[in-house]
Each structure stands twice: as structure tokens, then as C-alpha cells.
Automatic annotation (TrEMBL):
Superkingdom, natural source: Bacteria
Ranges where the SGNH hydrolase-type esterase domain occurs: 234-378
Gene3D superfamilies reported for this sequence: 2.60.120.1360, SGNH hydrolase
Pfam families named among the record's database cross-references: Lipase_GDSL_2
Species annotation: Ferruginibacter yonginensis
Protein name from the UniProt record: GDSL-type esterase/lipase family protein
Length: 404
């Protein structure tokens, strides 16, 4: 009898201890104290969250079984500067560990805007293209861009803003093509050759952390292509990749076979899709065709990463010709219908942001074109997205873990 009571006490004690160790995520509501009575808190949530259970279970397991979880956010000009994703990345990595910056691209060499922490230069002028403005011969890899040249002495110098010594990496994966050959030199004189190569991806690893490198072509006159770099730490935790292309639409990502092939190499555990703004600029958009494009994107994501949770976010409202864009309403309705029909988790920023851009404009959170946001506006969106994810995760702990 005493043994039975002792075993029960031990079991209950272990159960309480395991619950106490569950990684409840903090919700940051500081933004409510400043410029943002515009936020509709009741709608800042994840609809249809059940298909995030796979991701949430992996997050729970991270505390006892360290690994790397890859989250990929894919979008357009709202995501390219990395403001939104940087907020989510930082807070998730604070909780579970920093496994690296993930996918980046030398945007300056493609004549495009780069995130604040990304710097690039070269000894030549590269030709370039992007998924949103495809040329007849273009191929668009994991970052939605390409730069290419047949200059045999071409190089790319790349660095991360090494603020507080946190922006470092120990592995670089160069997404290129099968005809190219590369060598890489970090700070210093040592030249590294790739120790792993497969399907156009060259992997370089270093004995100590670095934050900058120069990638050089090994002399040949074949056309050399670069589609992006994945910057990775040896740590376990979260690797939050941000992919954004100015002007991009669902159908353009759908059409790029190479994009999907290279995306699969990242082994995503979660894919967050933030598109729809550019489709809404068309007055003659066929909504049925748009819904098919959204569904095709979802199907492609599931095909290359069956282990991943797929989540969609809606575009914010905006002005067009000085008035609220009526197509935004139809776009968001269509996205909601696709998510509901396919049980896809949805963060409806259109509703959470108050449905109208006028309040955001009055509070000084939008750019002058009243389509994009300024840095502060995007950082607020990132905090809202993180809070919605954190709330869904905490609800998962309560209902799926503690409720057992």
C-alpha cells in the first residue's frame, strides 16, 4: 500500500514538474501603449490553428530534444526588408535558441533594397532578374532572385551587420547551379572550398564563427548564377528564413520550379505565406483564378515539405487613387475561403489591423504611397504576428498538453 502511494506521489510530482517546464510564450503588448488604438485585439489570432500542431509539438520537444526548426516566411515587398520577420525571429530565438539568420540574398547587386543587416558588393556588374519581373531566360531560386555573369573573375563580398556579436554563422550554403565553381574566403587569408555539393548547392563550413566573406568564381567562362545564401549557426533552435520579392504574386512563385526545388532543401517545418497585395492592384482580377493560385501554392508547399505546417497571412488594407482599394476586400475574402475549405491556419491582419488604412496613416505608420508601411508600422505588424502565434502556441499547451 505504501509503495503504491509513493508511486502515485512520484507520478503526480513528475507531471507537475513537466507542466511547470512547459515553454509558455510571453505576449508583448507594449505596442498598445503608444500609437496603436488601431489594433483590433479580438481578431489578432490564428484562425484554424489545428494544422500548426505539428510545429507546436516540435517546439515543445526542443526543450528536451535539441534540434533545428526551420520557419520560412515568403512574401512580397512587405517582407523583403525583413522588418516583420525580424521581430518574430528575434522573439522565437530568444525562447528556443538562435540557429542562424537563414536565407539572404545580395540584393544590392540585383539593384534592389536589402534588409538593414545585409551588405553586399562585387568587383563586377552582375546581370539580374527577379520572380516578379521574369525575363525569358530567367530562373529564380530560393530567394526569388538571381544574379548571373560569365565573367571568369567574378566575386561577391557579403556581410551581416555584426551588432553585439550576435550576427555570425559557421556554415554558408551557396544556392547556385551545377555549372558554377566557387571558393570562399572569410576575413583573413584562408581560402575554403566546399566540403559538400549537391544539386547546385555548395556548403562551406568554418572552424570559428564569421560574419563576412568573399565568394569567388574559380576561373571559367561559363555562366555563373547565384540564387541566395543560407547563413547557419551550429546551435540548435530556430532558423527563421525570410524570402521577399518586390511585386511578387502567388502565380509567379507557382511558376518557378527551381524555387520549389531549392525551398525543399531548407527542410521547412513551417511555411508562412504573406502575399496578395500585388494581385489587389488589378481592377480586372479574376477571383476564381486567384483562389486557384493560392490553392496551388499550398499544394506545392505540402508537396515539397509534407512535414511542414503551412500558414497564410492576409494583406493589409491600403489606398488606391486616394480611396480604399475595393479589391483588397475581395482578396481577403478569397483567402479566408481557401483557408477555411482546406483547414489552413490563417492570420487575418486585414481584420486585426482595423480593416482601414486611415488610422495607420493618421498615426504615421504608413509610407507616402499609402500602400506600404514605414519601419515602425512593419515592426508593429511583426509584433502582432508574433503575439498571434504565441497565443496559439499557449492555447495548444493548455488544450493538447496540459489537457491530457
Amino acid at each position: 500500500m505504501k509503495l503504491r502511494i509513493t508511486l502515485i506521489i512520484l507520478f503526480v510530482g513528475q507531471l507537475l514538474l513537466s507542466k511547470a517546464q512547459l515553454p509558455i510564450l510571453p505576449i508583448n503588448s507594449n505596442y498598445l501603449l503608444c500609437k496603436t488604438p488601431i489594433v483590433n485585439e479580438a481578431f489578432n489570432r490564428i484562425e484554424y490553428p489545428q494544422n500548426l500542431d505539428k510545429l507546436f509539438n516540435k517546439l515543445v520537444q526542443l526543450k528536451t530534444n535539441p534540434s533545428v526548426i526551420n520557419i520560412v516566411q515568403i512574401g512580397d515587398s512587405h517582407t523583403q526588408p525583413d522588418f516583420i520577420s525580424s521581430v518574430v525571429r528575434y522573439q522565437l530565438q530568444q525562447q528556443w535558441g538562435d540557429a542562424g539568420r537563414g536565407i539572404v540574398f545580395p540584393y544590392k547587386l540585383a539593384n534592389s533594397n536589402a534588409p538593414a543587416d545585409v551588405q553586399s558588393s562585387s568587383n563586377i556588374n552582375w546581370q539580374f532578374s527577379r520572380i516578379a519581373k521574369p525575363d525569358t531566360n530567367g530562373s529564380y531560386g530560393v530567394a526569388g532572385f538571381e544574379i548571373y555573369t560569365n565573367n571568369e573573375a567574378a566575386n561577391v563580398s557579403f556581410s551581416l551587420n555584426n551588432k553585439n556579436n550576435l550576427q555570425y554563422f559557421e556554415t554558408v550554403k551557396v544556392f547556385s547551379d551545377t555549372a558554377s565553381q566557387w571558393q570562399l574566403k572569410p576575413q583573413g587569408d584562408t581560402i575554403f572550398t566546399p566540403h559538400f555539393y549537391k544539386n547546385g548547392v555548395f556548403q562551406f563550413s568554418f572552424p570559428k564563427p564569421i560574419s563576412a566573406f568573399t565568394l569567388s568564381s574559380i576561373n571559367n567562362t561559363t555562366t555563373k548564377k547565384i540564387y541566395g545564401f543560407s547563413l547557419e549557426k551550429n546551435n540548435t533552435g530556430i532558423r527563421y528564413h525570410n524570402i521577399g520579392v518586390n511585386g511578387a504574386q502567388y502565380k509567379q512563385y507557382n511558376a518557378s520550379m527551381l524555387f520549389w526545388q531549392q525551398l525543399s532543401i531548407l527542410a521547412p517545418d513551417c511555411i508562412i505565406v504573406s502575399l496578395g497585395t500585388n494581385e489587389a492592384q488589378k481592377n480586372d482580377l479574376n477571383i476564381d483564378s486567384f483562389k486557384l493560385a493560392v490553392k496551388t501554392f499550398i499544394d506545392s508547399a505540402r508537396a515539397i515539405a509534407p512535414q511542414a505546417s503551412v500558414m497564410i497571412t492576409t494583406p493589409a488594407n491600403s489606398l488606391k487613387g486616394g480611396r480604399t482599394n475595393p479589391m483588397i476586400v475581395q482578396i481577403n475574402k478569397a483567402i479566408n475561403e481557401v483557408c477555411m475549405a482546406n483547414n489552413i491556419p490563417l492570420w487575418d491582419f486585414y481584420k486585426a489591423g482595423g480593416r482601414t488604412p486611415l488610422y495607420w496613416i493618421k498615426k504615421g505608420l504608413m509610407a507616402k504611397d499609402h500602400l506600404h508601411f514605414n519601419k515602425e508600422g512593419y515592426l508593429l505588424q511583426g509584433q502582432l504576428l508574433y503575439n498571434a502565434l504565441a497565443t496559439a502556441f499557449n492555447n495548444y499547451l493548455t488544450t493538447k498538453i496540459e489537457g491530457k
